C-alpha cells in the first residue's frame, strides 16, 4: 500500500466511500419492498425479484418507445413512476388471486410465491425473449462527475442514491404520517382489534402487498442504470434482499436501513482489501456470527409474542 | 362417407404415394441407392433409405437460453442448407430437438434419450463445460457423436466429441502476444467470473504473461456468477493502473461490469482492455456505447470480410430475421453439421466409429471464419482475430493470426 502517494490514496478513499454508499442504496432499494411485505405481513415473497424484473422490463419497454420518438433524455423519471404503477397493479392482482388464501400458512406462501416466480420468469422469457436487454439511458445519467481530475463519481450511482433516499422517505411518511400507514400498523399489531374498530384489514393487506411490489418495481427500474435485464435477473437479487431484511430484524424499516448500510460498507471495504469473492464470504461470515448472537436481527421488534 | 368415395380416396392416396416414391427414386434417392442402408448403418442408428435422424441438445429455457439460442439457430440453418443440397449420403436430415433447460442432469438424461431411444447418428449441442462434462459419460458409454461449439478451457479430449470452438491456448496466447506488442503492455490485471473456464484461462494467461512476455500480473480477481457490484474492484484497478485489463466476465455480471467501468470513467480512452468473453451476442445486452474501443479475442466476428461469411450472414438473417446477430459460438455451432456431413461422406457410413476415424485431417474451406482443419485431437485448427468494438455493436477486426494448431493439454501452462 505504501508505494502510492498520499494524493492517490486520498482519491481512492473518496471513491471507495462512494462505492460503499452506492452499494448501500442498491441494497436498500432491493430490500425496502420486501421489508414491508415480510415485516408487516409475515409473507415470505419469493417472487420479490420478479417484481423488480417487472419494473426493469417496464423501463426497457418505455426506453424503446422513447427512442422511436426521440425523447430519450426525458423518459426516465416517467419510467420510474410507470414501473411503480405496473408492479403495484400486478401485486394487487397477485394478492387477490393467490396470497390472501394463504395468510394462515406461511410455509405455503413461500412455495406458492416461488412457483409464481418461476411462472413469471417463463412469461418474461416468452414475451421479451431469452436474451438480456438494456434500457437506453439518457445522456445525463451516463458518465461520471469529476470534482478533481483523479476522482470519478459515477452519475448513475448518485442517481440510485438519491432515488433510494426519496423512496425511503416516502415509505416513512406513508407508514408514520398517513392514515393508511396508521391502518397498516394497527393491522400488524392486532388484526382482530383493528377489524373491530372498523378498519378493512383485507383491503389493508392488499394495498400493503401491492405497495411492497410497487417499490420493488421502482428498484428494478433504477437497476437498469447499472445492470441488464433478463428473465432470471430477479433471482440474482432475491438472496441479497432477504439477507438485508433478516439481518435488520424483520419488522423494522429502520433495521432494514441499518442492515443495508452495515452490509454494504463491510462488503465494499472487505472486497477492496481481499479478493472480490473472499470479501463476500467474509461479509456473510460476519452476518452469520451476528445472527447467532441476535437471532431476531439488529433491530428486534418489541411485540409481545 | 359413401363406399365409392372412400375407395376413390384410397386409390388417389395410393397414386400419390406411388408418385412420391417414384419422384424420390428419380431425384435425391438415386444417390442414396448407391449407399444401401444395411451397408451405411451397421449399428442400428435411426437411418432409413431416405432419412437420418440427428439431435440438437441445447437450453432453450433457463439461464443459459440467452447464449444457446444462437447455437440452435445456426445448427438449424446448417441442417436446412444441407437438406436443400440433397442431404447426407442422399438422406434428408431429421432433427430431434431436446431442451437441456440449463440444468446439467437434464442434459445427461436428454442425451441418453437421444442416443438410446431416438438412435440419432450425431448430436449438436451443449454450451457450458458443465453440461458437456455431464453428457460425456453417456456419449462414451453409448458410443455417440457430439459436436460441441463453445470456446472452452481445454484439458479434455474424447473419441466421441469434436470441439468446433477454440480451446484455451488458441484464444489466449495469440491475443496476449498482440496486445503486449501493440500497446507495449507490461502490467496486466486479470478478472473473471468464478468458475472453471475463467480460472483455467487466467492460469494460462498468467503463465504466458510472466514466462513469455516478461510482463507482470498486478491483480487477479474472480467475481461470483451473477454479481453486479464492481465498485471496489474498479477502485483497485484505478489504484494499480494496469496497462491492460484482461477480462473473462460472463452473463449478467458482464453487462454490469462494462456499464460501471464506463460510469467510473474507465473507458477505452484511458484504459486498454482485452476480453475473451464478449461476442456480438453479449454486446446486445451491454450496449455498444459501453464497449466502444475495447478489444475482444475471438476466432470469428460477424463483420469478417470474406465471401463465405457474407453468404452465411445473409442466410442467417434471412432465416432468423434482420436483427439477428452472430457471435463466435454461433459460427462454431454452424460448423458442426457441416463437419458431420463431411465425416459421414468421407467414411461412406453413418457408423460413429467410421465417421470419427474419417474426420481428422479434413479441411473445411467454406467455413464463415475461413479455412479450418480438423486436427487429430478432435479440435479445429483455426485463426485468432482481435476485434475492436464499435458503437454500433459490431467489431472491426484489427488483427488476424496465422492458423493455430489446437493444443488442449498445453505443456508448461498447467
UniProtKB/TrEMBL annotation, chain A:
For this record, an example GO cellular component is: plasma membrane
Entry keyword Magnesium: no
Q: Name one GO biological process term.
A: amino acid transport
Membrane topology according to the record = Multi-pass membrane protein
Principal place of residence: membrane
Keyword hit for Nucleotide-binding: no
Provide the alphabetized UniProt keywords: Amino-acid transport, Cell membrane, Membrane, Transmembrane, Transmembrane helix, Transport
Q: Which stretches are transmembrane?
A: 12-37, 49-66, 72-94, 153-176, 209-230, 242-263, 270-293
Q: What is one Pfam family matched by this protein? A: BPD_transp_2
Coiled-coil regions, chain positions = none
Q: Which GO terms describe its molecular function?
A: transmembrane transporter activity
Location in or out of the cell: Cell membrane
State the PANTHER family in the record.
ABC TRANSPORTER PERMEASE PROTEIN (PTHR11795:SF447), BRANCHED-CHAIN AMINO ACID TRANSPORT SYSTEM PERMEASE PROTEIN LIVH (PTHR11795)
State the family it belongs to.
Belongs to the binding-protein-dependent transport system permease family. LivHM subfamily.
**What is the protein name for this chain?**
Amino acid/amide ABC transporter membrane protein 1, HAAT family
Q: Source species, please?
A: Methylobacillus rhizosphaerae
Q: What is the lineage of its organism?
A: Bacteria, Pseudomonadati, Pseudomonadota, Betaproteobacteria, Nitrosomonadales
Automatic annotation (TrEMBL), chain B:
Alphabetical list of PROSITE patterns matching this protein: TAT
Q: Which residues form the signal peptide?
A: 1-32
PANTHER family membership? ALIPHATIC AMIDASE EXPRESSION-REGULATING PROTEIN, PTHR47628
Q: Which Gene3D superfamilies match?
A: 3.40.50.2300
Q: Write down the InterPro entries for this protein, in alphabetical order.
A: ABC_urea-bd_UrtA, Peripla_BP_I, TAT_signal
The domain of life for this entry's organism is Bacteria
Keyword line: Signal
Sorted alphabetically, which Pfam families does this protein's record hold? Peripla_BP_5
The protein depicted here goes by the name: Amino acid/amide ABC transporter substrate-binding protein, HAAT family
The record's section on SUPFAM superfamilies has: Periplasmic binding protein-like I
Q: Point out the coiled-coil segments of this chain.
A: none
